[in-house]
Structure formats: C-alpha cells, structure tokens
Amino acid sequence: MQVGLQIPDYTWPGGPGRLGADLAAVARAADDAGFGFISVMDHFFQIRGVGPAEHEMLEAYTTLGYLAAHTSRANLLTLVTGAVYRYPGVLAKIVSTLDVLSGGRAWLGIGAAWNEEESKGLGIPFPPVAERFERLEETLQICLQMWSGDEAPFRGTHYELDRPLNSPQALTKPHPPIMIGGGGERKTLRLVARYAQACNLFPTPDLARKLDVLRAHCDAEERVYDEISKSCYFIFDVGPKGQRANEVVDRLGELAALGFDTAIGRWIVPVLRVSPGQQFGRCRHLGPAVQDGRHAVGANPPQRRPVLVVLIGEHSNPRVGVDVAEPPQPRRGLRLKVDGGVDHITVNGKGDRDNVRLPFWGHRREAGHPGLAKPLPGVIIA
User: What confidence tens digit (pLDDT) does each residue in 290-312 have?
Assistant: First the structure.
C-alpha cells in the first residue's frame, strides 16, 4: 500500500510570508519519508469542509511546480483538476511541463468539477453536469493525442484544436498517468475504464460495489481491470500520541484487501494538550518558536485569558502561537497560565471545549476582545 500526502489547506500560523518556506519543508519531509504522492487540490477558493472560501488557496499547478523543485522522488498531482478550469490543450502543456521539470513525476488528476461558487466568482464557465462530463472526456482525448505526438486537428463537440503541438513532450512514457477522481457509476468509472491508469474514490461504505462496477466497465471496454491502480482518499489520524496508529494500519489493510493499492489524504498532526490551570515556564522542550512581533492568535469567541497553541510536526520545527490579551507576555521566556475554557486545540483550529475556534493566521480584533497587549509582544524562543 502506497501512501500519499494531500495538502488542502494553506491557512498556516506563519501567514503568507512564511508559506513558501513552510510548504517546502512539509514537501521535503514527505519526500524523504518515502511518500509515493504529494497532491494538492485544484481549487481557487477554499472549499466547505476545510474552511471558509476566504481562506488562503494557492493555484494548484504553480504550487506543484514549486514542490517539484523541493522534492526528488514523490509523484506530483492534483486531487483533482476540474476539467472546465483550463482549456484542454493548455492543461496538456501544463502537465507536460511539470513532468519535464520534475524529472518524470507528474500525474494528471482530473474530474468533471463541482464547485460552482468559485467558477462563477472568477468568471469561469460552469456548464450543466452532463456537459461537464462531455468536456471531461474531450479533455482526456486531447491530452492523450497531444502526448502521443499526433498533431492532426482535433474536432470535438466543445473543443477544436487546429494543431495540438506539444513540445517538449513529457518524459514519462507513454504519457503521464491519468487518475480520474470520483465514484459515479455510470459516467466517471466508465471513463476510468476507457482512459485512466488510476481511479480515486472516497471511503464510503459501498467501496466494494464501486470496484465491481469498475470491473464491469473494464470488461465492456476490453480493459484489464488489474492494470488500473485503485486509490482511496484517507484521513491519517494516528492520535495525539500515536495511540490510533494500529487502527490506521488496520484500516489500510482493509482497503488493501478490497483491492486498493494507494491511500492519499490529509494527515492529522498531533498537538499539545493544554489543561486548565496548567503553568508554562521556559518550555525549552518545545524547541524554536515562530518569531513574529506583528501578530497574535485571536480566539473566537473572544477570550480574556491567554490561549497557548502548539503545532508539533506540521513544520520542520515546533511552532508556538499565543493570544496575549491578558497578561502581557515577557519577551524573554514564555510564561502562560491557562485558567480554563480551552483544554485541547487541534491542528485545524477547532477546540473541543466551549466551541472555541482559533484563527491561526492572525489576530482578528473581534468585537469584545480586549485587544493586543502593548507593546506588541513577540512570540519568543521558548
């Protein structure tokens, strides 16, 4: 079973100013650890289930090109590109470029697209679902033709290309692998059988039936079912102290028994538990902390007590953030007493007590919040 990392969220403690360095560190760590894939979402607004639309969202292929320069072995792909987001000929060029610059590590992850909000927001045509699937199939045909070196005109229902030239060609032969995302039984899995080297399914209770449907489509297309890699989206949550690691391994084993060979998804990062009344002094074991004299982390709803946030493992070093409304924190040494309210802060910013949510990207100055301590405290080397 290969495992892969998906990076769906770019709202990180250091803000946009540190995003490049932090993203490179995450990618290098995954690459060095032997992850088979590093993937990003192909969205322009943040999606529901991860955060509000206003959260930071990087353009996918620019990001993959950046990650290619900071990795050497992991395959790189979107999970997945919306077929209507880019002209097919341009998409073929983009993936070919990524394959060349990464030394042959690009995959084309693609689907029919679903996010109407971001499409309309940015003026991207978003046709009805039937037409989106027609455009998806023509996109697959165009990419395969361009990767084959065939420059004959393409005449489809939705796209016409007079000369689909692709130079330089991708390094991967015969072409970068295609992964189609989604579990639609009538259209999506039929396209997998006809065009793709891999599928990506969500971990729903009907996975076994989805694979049976894919096998039937392969029979109809005279395609060898076992030639297709089966990937499942997966939440890797080993628990704050690794206590659920065996559960994760068991679940991966169950997927492997069904026929899946790859699991790609989010990794839940263990964090420090903060108990009411707990006193933190120098905290030398936490290692380097973020040096940032401009921002504090604001709590929502506003809290009159300090809140300590520690992220362990998401970056190359532990990071510490602190809401310093009261009392002001000394610049030399972190001394924080948690009086109650928040006793667990998870990596996505949602506390499990009193419905506290921490926006890590900066102080929000919500109504009723006492505001930043004066002068602005730095988050110190703890």
Answer: 333 333 333 333 334 444 444 33
Evaluate if pTM is beyond 0.85: no
Quick check: helix, strand or coil at residue 37?
strand
pLDDT of residue 98: 98
With a CB cutoff of 8 Å and minimum separation 6, the contacts of 30 are: 5, 38, 71, 74
| C-alpha–C-alpha distance, residues 203 and 233, integer Å | 6
Note whether 164 and 146 are within 8 A (CB).
yes
With a cut of 70, say whether residue 356 has pLDDT above it: no
What CA–CA distance (Å, rounded) separates 5 from 374?
A: 41
| Mean per-residue pLDDT of the chain | 76
* Per-position DSSP letters for 157-199, written without gaps between them: SS-EES----SSPPSSSS---EEEE---TTTHHHHHHHH-SEE
Query: Which amino acid, 324?
Result: V
235 close to 268: Cβ distance less than 8 angstroms: yes
Domains of the chain and any CATH numbers:
2-265 (3.20.20.30), 270-382 (no CATH)
